[in-house]
Amino acid sequence: MQNSKQVDVAIIGGGILGLATAYNLMGRMPGKSLVVLEKESTVAHHQTGHNSGVLHAGIYYKPGSLKAINCRAGKKLMEDFCDEHGVPWKRCGKVVVATDEKEIPKMHDIFERGQQNGVDCRLITAEECREIEPHAAAVAAIHVPETGITDYKMVCEKMASLLSDAGHEIRTNAKVTAIKRNPSGGSVIECTSGLAVEAKLVVNCAGLQCDRVTKLSGQKPSAKIVPFRGEYFDLKKSAEHMVKTLIYPVPDPAFPFLGVHFTTMVHGGAECGPNAVLALGREAYGKFQVNIPDLFESLTYPGFIKMAAKHWKMGMGEMWRSYSKAAFVKALQRLMPEIRAEHLEPCPSGIRAQALKSDGTLVDDFIIDDADNVVNVNNAPSPAATASLNIGKLIVDKLEPRLK
Q1: Which of 20-24, 182-186, 263-267 has the lowest mean pLDDT?
Q2: Closest by CA position to 136, among listed 249, 270, 259
Q3: pLDDT (tens digit, 9 = 90+) per residue, 26-42?
Q4: Please, what is the Cα angle at 228 between 226 and 229, to 5 degrees?
Q5: Considering the entire predicted model, what is its pTM?
Q6: Same structural domain, 380 and 271
Q7: Are 339 and 248 in a shared domain?
């Protein structure tokens, strides 16, 4: 085929999952050619670039789930990668605090999960919690000393640099517009950069657009992506001392979002949030930014209608916190009573690609669908950044036999 680039593997998506897959493939099969196609002008532009940088220990996840397995293995791989390549990270620890006696049974359930997952964690008293986080409101807590923080955008930039240095192309401004089966085998990927790509195998790590890319590949996605915007505040310099590590609430197991929490940052400072409101577009980061086709797609999807009917009360609370700083502060004060509105300044929002099934079920685990010559990652929520190097390893496990 003329005007095309021929490669063994084309990876769609230049976020941390796409780059981690490419990095694993390069390490395991250095003789194979690959290209990463990213529709934005830089790597890590969307979910990865808006990540708060937590290296999750894996305490929350159902034992034996893809989340639990990949988080535990991926965290060690990510720490080793950062050490090897000079990306800053540190093990700061975390407390999961019960702010009410009623939350203690749920807290114990989380602790049991952590124990089963092999997480270094222990139950602590309110007094012990105050020694770690003097300003946190706790009747009891779990201490997770192995939780860490890093800069995932820097991780991506380092991976992209290593791939480029090895002769692999990281093609930006390359939105995929079509994926066609090649009569001779493999796929032809057309994109806005002009030059098509002929690839034996394709990996879809398109994040917020993953279900649409799955459709382009000729497969039916097992769930639809519905975007949720998470809004954050930075703590002003005068209030940074109030957070020493990470302070998380006991989450509601019926809802996949962890609730507002406090996070120290690897480059200094601390942030708090997020809430979780329906984004008015898959890439609509501003509160009043709207993408009409995206919004229409979300609002008319049967799965969203059913989910909204079930969780409408929680959803209204999240929306109220989005438009009322006082309400947001009140939610934060459950964890830290001394926090005040004047301690906070807005910082950029993030958008989570939440996979939602047609029956209204919020998909909580990773989804990796494998069909013909395409691997589609159709759900990769938190802790995907922590787990990315191990998820990339699993994807390469699927690719390797076909490339040999």
Answers
A1: 182-186
A2: 249
A3: 999 999 999 999 999 99
A4: 150
A5: 0.95
A6: no
A7: yes
